[in-house]
Prior knowledge:
The chain is mainly alpha-helical. Helix content is 69%, strand content 2%. The protein is built from 10 helices and 2 strands. The protein starts with a helix and ends in a 7-residue tail after the last helix.
Amino acid sequence: MEKILYILRRLLYGALILLGVITIVFFISHLVPGDATLALVGPDAPQDIIDDMRAKFGLDKPLLAQYVLYLKNLILNRNLGFSIQNQREVAEEIKRYFPATFELVTVAMIFAVLVAVPVGILSAVKKDQWEDHLGRLIALSGISMPIFWLGLLLQLLFAYYFGWTPLHERVTLDVIMKHPSSCGGGTAGGSHSFQLRGDDYCQ
């Protein structure tokens, strides 16, 4: 019984934290300068179109009413909102990009475990020896190195110099089977990869 109460209490705390984050993000987003409606229809749009779009998304209501409407749509209708930039529902955008994100996180975790566990064991066994110092150097380098910079270096290495991967988008099985030499086979040179990067399968 105590375990059940503990789980329920943790779930309640999690829900309250999630509600707090949603509330903070909602009100902070309204403090950002600019008009979301003008960003959607353009600054030169007629006033009647601007008013219609504000009414459509509920932006003509008071801020507190917008917040209540947002929570209602989020909880009852599972509506995450509309992306002004991509002109799509946010749920559709998440559904579109989630598989790639899941693949990236999974592979990164597997790689991290396969590298971190042996290096950690070796550092513990070879304490204060060169293996331990090398392990610390690798760990500190991984923590300190900016991710975006490392990503650019890996793109330069594997896409440009080795030609093992396409420069854009994901390396899918379909791409590898159709064009193994340029998008995953490892036999093409970097210049050949850059010549092919404009093709449809590498976009």
